Amino acid sequence: MNIKKIFSKKKRYEGYIYILPWLIGFLLLQLYPFISSIYYSFTDYHIASAPHWVGLQNYIKLFTTDTEFLNSLKVTFLFALYTVPGKLILSLAVAVFLNRSIKGINYIRTVFYLPSLFGGSVAIALLWKLMFMDTGVINQILKIFSLPSVQWLGDPKVSLFTISLLEIWQFGSSMVMFLAALKQVPSSVMEAAYIDGAGKIRAFFSVTVPYITSIIFFNLIMQTINALQNFTSAFVITKGGPLKSTYLLGLKLYNEGFAYYKMGYASAISWVIFAIIMVITLIFFKTSSSWVFYEDEK
């Protein structure tokens, strides 16, 4: 009996050793910065000097005198409003198209997933910038059809939509989730709907959509979080311009912390973003009971 206890303890200690690298990384690279940023958000902290406690002044400044922050807040919400519905609709449409048994369908699905593998990289963002510049490929195509050129990145009314297209283009992960959900819709239920006289469109909205609402809900939350934290596209393609029309909160946070070295102020911005994400997520969860259908509720 004692031998068994010794071996069980040994196995338990071995388990701790195996997770030790992850545990150290979690404590030093995630938990400590997370907690310390709370303290820094209440301080006037520059990299070259020690933190100085200022209480709520950073937060008061954000919502009262910092017009740049208020503009970034508006731009970020507009960015989420463009990208989240756009990505969900496109990914669901593509998933419906790919939910069929035809020759080479697996290769076709791989091609549609590729944008999600490369879309978030700096290289793709630079390529997007080259495509949509005044002399880029998109305007050259418009000229072929005798259409006027568009200042995709130079017009404040169009630039936010342009970088939103890059985010919408990365629909692969949502598409895979929708495709898996569509595979779970019972064929017998669809057949019953057709027998009752429902057309394909009616059957899709009355039968298919209710069966995949849980996946719609999941993708809605994940894509909203990603949109509110977006940084790469605005930083690489437009630098927040023109006229701050693409100055997302992620870019504002970066500039305050790493361009102006106002770490305390940047920490306050990060906690505002965190609070916004938490509130929106809670609203989604509170309202989900009225439209999300789960398998065990049948």
Notable traits:
single chain, 298 residues, mainly alpha, 2 domains, 72% helix, globular
Describe the structure.
The protein is mostly helical and 298 residues long. The protein folds into 2 domains: 31 residues; 233 residues, MetI-like fold. Helix content is 72%, strand content 1%. It is built from 14 helices and 2 strands; from the N terminus they run αββααααααααααααα. Strands 1-2 form a two-stranded antiparallel sheet. Helix 4 runs antiparallel to helix 8.
- The overall average pLDDT, rounded, is 89
User: So what's the overall shape?
Assistant: globular
How many DSSP-defined strands? 2
How many strands, what sense, and barrel or not for the largest sheet?
Answer: 2 strands, antiparallel
CATH C-level class of the largest domain: Mainly Alpha
Q: Please list the strands of the largest sheet in the order they lie side by side.
A: 1-2
According to CATH, what is the topology of the largest domain? MetI-like fold
Strand content: under 5%
What class do helices, strands and sheet pairing give? mainly alpha
Low-confidence stretches: none
Instruction: Supply Rg.
Output: 24 Å
Q: Determine the number of helices (DSSP H or I, runs of at least 4 residues).
A: 14
Domain tally: 2
Proper CATH architecture of the largest domain: Orthogonal Bundle
- In N-to-C order, the SSE pattern is HEEHHHHHHHHHHHHH
Quick rundown:
72% of the residues lie in helices and 1% in strands.
Produce the secondary structure layout.
Elements: H1 2-40, E1 43-44, E2 52-53, H2 57-64, H3 67-98, H4 105-118, H5 122-132, H6 137-144, H7 159-169, H8 172-183, H9 187-195, H10 200-211, H11 213-228, H12 232-238, H13 249-259, H14 263-288
Antiparallel strand pairs: 1-2
Helix pairs in contact: 1-14, 3-7, 3-8, 3-11, 4-8, 5-12, 7-12, 9-10, 11-14, 13-14
